Amino acid sequence: MLTRSLFAALLLVAASGSPAAEYTIDPSHTYASFEIDHHGFSTQRGRFNQTSGVVEFDPEAKTGHVDIRIAVASLDTGMAKRDEILLGENWFQAKDYPDILFRSDKLVFTGDKLTAVEGKLIMLAEVRPLRLDVTRFKCGFNLANRKRGCGADAVGVLKRSEFGMPQGLPFIGDEVRLHIQVEAYLP
Question: Is the pTM of this model over 0.90?
Fold first, then answer.
């Protein structure tokens, strides 16, 4: 009996480890948001309400892959008329370019801590390098949904003019801070 209990305990410990795995992004807990200067008077913010993708992560090898798809039509700045303008032909061109993609095969660690993800942002058919600095990262068992997962908060800076979006310069800022909060779980 003791041997069976010990064996069961060892299996439980082994199963609770963090082997390499593919996690599916939880769209109800993953958001991409942005901040941009507005005429020097204020910082305007918006977010995209629909995301999807996968995160592969091997904590022992400190490797992984991130593939995030952001639905442009889910743009929400809190003002319908502004959203309509931003989704139109002079800005995001949502009909022709329905998705913004972030893809990475490079996770950056400082010791055992994930500190950045370096990849490529694809927007309006332009591909540019983008580094997302990770300000929070955790993997573990989520008691609420009873699944193993990983979550992170990350932030990066891009210039919208490099993606073919120069409208309103210099009055509306060129530099955009992109924030991504992501949670991803094993299926």
Answer: no
